[in-house]
Amino acid sequence: MNSIDAWVWWLVGAAALGIPLVVTAMPEFGMFAIGAVAAAVTAGLGADVVIQVLVFVAVSVALIAVVRPIAARHAAQRPQLATGIDALKGKQAVVLERVDSSGGRIKLAGEIWSARSLDTGRAYEAGEAVDVVEIEGATAIVI
Questions:
Q1: Which of 11, 31, 120, 138 could connect to 101 by a Cys-Cys bridge, CB 3.0–4.6 Å?
Q2: Is the distance from CB of 79 to CB of 103 less than 8 angstroms?
Q3: What was the pLDDT predicted at 1?
Q4: Model confidence over 20-49: pLDDT tens digits?
């Protein structure tokens, strides 16, 4: 065991920390792995074991303190570009067949959709412009 240099052990530790990173998708393990690589570099430069451990701890803690809040902030943000049915909400459509609370047809974003009115007492005639409020399955809810 003494014949293997300390930097090799640090790299083995970094690889070992990469396994739970992949399995659990917890980025903290990756930050610890980077700390182990930094400690391996320190060991390769001939630093004492105490310095190696301090570098490992300092780099790992610094990465967790800096990267984790940034990642959490990005994960909490909604995407700037709406896609799919979210992109259709708020769009205008043209009524093709009378739309009331029981159904009808509209032309929305170049496609023909089934639709129904949000207000049960309101009906829209062919040619009228309506606004899409919600999409429920394959049916557009309009006002």
A1: 120
A2: no
A3: 43
A4: 988 988 889 999 999 999 999 999 999 999
Token duo for residue 132:
């899409």
pLDDT, tens digit (0-9, with 9 covering 90-100), for 54-79: 999 999 999 999 998 998 888 888 77
Q: Name the burial class of residue 130, with classes exposed (0-12), middle (13-18) and buried (19+) by CB atoms within 10 angstroms of its CB.
A: buried
- Least confidently predicted of 7-21, 48-62, 80-94, 99-113: 80-94
Q: Which residue has the tokens 């032309």?
A: 107
Give me the phi and psi of 66, to 5 degrees please: -95, -50
Q: What is the residue extent of each domain of the chain?
A: 6-76, 84-142
CATH tag, 84-142: 2.40.50.140
Task: For 64-97, give the secondary structure using H, E and C.
Answer: HHHHHHHHHHHHHCCCCCCCHHHHCCCCEEEEEE
